[in-house]
Amino acid sequence: MRFAYETDRGPVTAVDGVDLTVREGEVVALVGHNGSGKTTLAKHFNGLHEADEGSVSYRGRPVPEYGMGEIGREVGYVFQNPDHQIFAETVWEEVAFGPKNFGLEGPELDRRVERALETVELDGLDDADPFAFSKGQRQRVALAGILATDPEVIVFDEPTTGLDATQQRQFMDLVAKLNREEGVTVVMVTHDMGTVARYAPRTVVMRDGAVVDDLPTRELFGDGAALAEYDLVPPHPAACANAVRGDEPTALTAEELATALGGTDALADAEPVGDTASATTEGEGR
Ligand SMILES: Nc1ncnc2c1ncn2[C@@H]1O[C@H](COP(=O)(O)OP(=O)(O)OP(=O)(O)O)[C@@H](O)[C@H]1O
Asked: 153 - beta bridge partners?
């Protein structure tokens, strides 16, 4: 597929020649430099963009054929900045907006909202003003708003940007639980290699609008040549493991590294997500 933005200076091609299949129940990371086309591609998954050439299909049917409401119910998109999504004056109104739009009302709507708020651990805060929340809490409100629509797929654009290490871990553990327990398919655009290593078994690497690699994350982080070629910095546990492991597969997390070195979980416990906070392709702040 191909997509170009129309600008004053003419069309800017953002994605070109991408051929990608995401399977049900997967967690896939989309990585690559700034401007490589990750967000543009991701926005095709729920119809926020429509391909100029080729097409993007969901369950075998082209996304544009679904209509916005229909595809929105299947594929939720969580924006990088929750404030691009949040608009209501109370948490309840915010989370109820999606399912209300899809025609839910009464006790069924209440149940959906309560369940979504429980999942993100914001239950009991129905009347709170989401704009008075921390960034991490707003991110969770935004996620609850998507969860309340009961999607099959969730697309996250930089899900942990602006969250501290603990909030990052909490947010991503929640996402992992949705995948594990409810079978939600997850596609996440991220620069955070620690998050990729810990949560996404498959990584798609983009460059200049194209997919240049698509491989198991463990393979990517164990392959020095590929990491150098794509200019990706592996998370610390993988870097350490690569330095000492010989022919063994690399470690992706501190826990795995500790086990590989014959240690105990104590080492892992000592290092919560320091690796995820620093091991990005671009350094802090992204
Ligand atoms: N609204 C827009 N108008 C014109 N060009 C755009 C627009 N949004 C993105 N682009 C261009 O499309 C290309 C791909 O951008 P995109 O945001 O998809 O990349 P990305 O990999 O998600 O980048 P980042 O990591 O910085 O979020 C870039 O060249 C970018 O400048």
From this structure: 75, 185
CA nearest neighbour of 3 among 65, 58, 45, 60: 45
- Measuring from atom 26 of ligand 1, which residue has the nearest CA? 34
Ligand 1 near 39 CB (within 6 A): yes
Pocket test for ligand 1, best of 3, 12, 193 (most atoms within 8 A of CB): 12
Ligand 1 atom nearest to 32, measured from its CA: 21
Note the pTM of the prediction, 2 decimals.
0.88
Q: Which domains does the chain have, with CATH numbers?
A: 2-232 (3.40.50.300)
Distance, CA of 9 to chain centre: 32
Pairing, β 27-31 against β 2-7: unpaired
pLDDT in tens, 19-54: 999 999 999 999 999 999 999 999 999 999 999 999
Complex prediction ipTM: 0.98
